[in-house]
Amino acid sequence: MYRYDKYDQAMVDTRVEEFRDQVRRRLEGKLDDDQFKPLRLKNGLYLQLHAYMLRVAIPYGTLNSAQMRALGAIARKYDRGYGHFTTRQNIQYNWIKLAEAPDLFADLAKVEMHAIQTSGESIRNISSDQYAGAAADELIDPRPWCEMLRQMTTFMPEFSYLPRKFKIAVIASAEDRAALRWHDFALRIVRNDSGEIGFEVYAGGGMGRTPFIAYRIREFLPTSQLFSYLQAVLRVWNRHARRDNIHKQRMKILVHDLGQEEFTRQVEEAFEHFLSLAEDFPQAEYDRIAAYFAPPPFEQGLSDEIDLSDPAFAAWVDRQVIAHKAPGYAIANISLKPVGGIPGDISADQMDVVADLAERYSFDELRATHAQNLVLPHVRKADLHAVWQALVEAGLADANLDLVSDIIACPGLDYCSLANARSIPVAQKIAERFADPARQADVGELKIKISGCINACGHHHAGNIGILGVDRKGSESYQLLLGGSGDEVTTQAKIAGPGFDEDGIVDAVERAVEQYRTIRKPGERFIDTYRRVGMDGFKEAIYG
Q1: What is the mean pLDDT of residues 308-320?
Q2: Is 404 helix (H, G, I), strand (E, B) or coil?
Q3: Residue 298 and residue 312: Cα distance in Å, rounded?
Q4: Is residue 399 assigned to a domain?
Q5: How confident is the model at residue 160 (pLDDT cuts 50, 70, 90)?
Q6: Is 91:351 a contact under the CB 8 Å cutoff?
Q7: Can you give the pTM of this predicted structure?
Q8: Contacts of residue 421, Cβ cutoff 8 Å, sequence gap at least 6
Q9: According to the model, what pLDDT value does residue 158 have?
Q10: 20 to 30 Å CA-CA from 358: which of 173, 225, 270, 466?
Q11: Tell me, what DSSP letter sits at residue 28?
Q12: Which of 530, 328, 330, 345 is nearest to 445 (CA)?
């Protein structure tokens, strides 16, 4: 993984001291809240219902054991002993005291971490495939490009005051594990007919109040022209964005209003201008960064056999372990979705356990996923049983990846000042309703995603079953959506009908699942059945 050089470290250290001064002036009353707000947002600090919330960046979801231990120490020292992994491969802390925030930032800087551009009108954390560098199906490791984009877009003056937030994803496999087309700007690394590596480019995706699936605007972009092209996209958006209306400031609105063809035409025109400036990266810089992502020293001649005589271990392997590109190795997924737990939450002690496992068994590397789980990307198959035993002891061995209890949920009204309804209790009740492992296995792959408001932090638009919390005359209500997906066949979920109360939405989800079990064909996932029969195939079962 990438390591800071003296320039990276100096940049982060300088920002810490800058923010320390800003906090001091706020506490002394020299800055009022309106003056302080844009300053704290540039540093990932939100004012929530009960306290400040801090969002810490985990670039493209990659971190090491020292960083994970530091996150655990921060949870103990500055929060209430836990953290919350998000749908952007970041981690959040919900109980931060403003006076302590600068010291927290300084502790992050000691392990090459920060919260820069994790909020506000900026280019947010670059996301990627959680299996990057390990997956058997990827073309190349996309993370060097993620890192180059991170460096390019951090503190760049033209990108400092964007109309709204801007999200980028990069992957390098045919299978989409990063919800590519739900991003403002997205890249799939491909190979053209001449054998050259380049990018398939998408633009204009996003969730929230007005969801849109991104369009493909270029079939092939040479890697050497990436920065010019991204600048062209941002220049067109910056030029035309509706800064007069906060609900229409996202790039997805502009792409929709202009149309795919006209937006692409304007981007290509701006692209030619940027190409003439000859400001794209030198190959030596890519080579420098790519060297940090060289494959670890995998052992040769390892066996691919796994002793599955222990049924509980076998069930975990079957559900949580993914094929690795290196013989004798596997990718191990760690669930942060225990039945009755809070999706994405992890205690400080559990962070220490995961850090130890990464250091001992995974070449000191960890991944955070956009589905609010963790990954050990490089585990010898011979070590899987030891890893599993440690996870069992830590309460992290649930075998539910992509099953009905592997629910994505935002913090909702329990924490968030923007929310209309609680998300966490709904997620807990659904998971408890389907707690039986045999029942979960029979249902199979089913992605449930819950948002407590229209901002869609829980990605309900991309849920096979989506749930949206709304305010109905002062009461919490929940809309049920069906048919969404964030994979390579991206679709937007549709509202099924009238909303439900908290217990009613849990019942409605169960009725939808049972209808699927009744009408599915052999081998069909929930999403496959929905695409075959449509909403009409479920509506009567849900509403009677």
Answers
A1: 98
A2: coil
A3: 28
A4: no
A5: confident
A6: no
A7: 0.97
A8: 412, 413, 452, 453, 469, 470, 471, 476, 477, 478
A9: 85
A10: 173
A11: T
A12: 530
